[in-house]
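Q: Structure tokens for this one, please.
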Amino acid sequence: MKVLIVEDDARVSSFLERGLKAEGYRPQVAHNANTGLSMAKALQKEVRENFESAVVILDVMLPDGSGLDVCQTLRAEGFALPVLMLTALNSVEDRVAGLRMGADDYLGKPFAFDEILARLEALGRRVGNTAPKQARKNLEVADLNLDLEKMRLSRAGREIQLTAKELALVELLMSAPGRLFSRERILSNVWGVNEDPLTNVVDVYIRRLRAKIDFDGLPPLIHTQRGLGYRLESIQTSDSQ
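A: Here is the predicted structure, written as tokens:
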């Protein structure tokens, strides 16, 4: 699915672009209202001709105009693609104004990358619901166990002392064994979207976590997919580093 990001903050737009690419989306970026308006119209024509799906992420506060006005103009001209408003203006009045201008959804900053993904999936799908997940008390991958009630990690019966961030990181990786998590997604979930997306904090914490859980020659559980991210699973051979 294509995603047009209309966002003037270069750090936020870069974060979204890189993260969405890693998740399999095809993002485009515009940094002002006029460019965003033109690109949105071109995008709608393109997806109609190619029978594709697309969503627009539209910031409210743009340097040459309001995202609300952009949304209203698009709707007045018959623009049918879903629009997700993204802004630091997050009062009830702001949300109501955005929805009345034609937005399909409204998300305030700061946001979690997982929530962006969930909302994009919902907007792209437009129908259907997902069943609520069963609450789990433990996460297990091979001999690695995370007690979610006590937030204690152990491997092969030995408790491993972790910091709060290390616990959050291992919980994320263990929540979907074998799933590839991009650095952007890890950064958003564990540190928050306001963290510099160019920082190497994810790599530093991955190294720390590996040093703690792969003790006494135990097989490595955290594996690197170069240029893409990390996954946690029990395999005997990998490209982990």
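A few notes: Helices lie at 10-22, 33-50, 67-76, 92-100, 113-125, 164-174, 183-191, 201-213. The chain has two domains: 2-124, 138-232.
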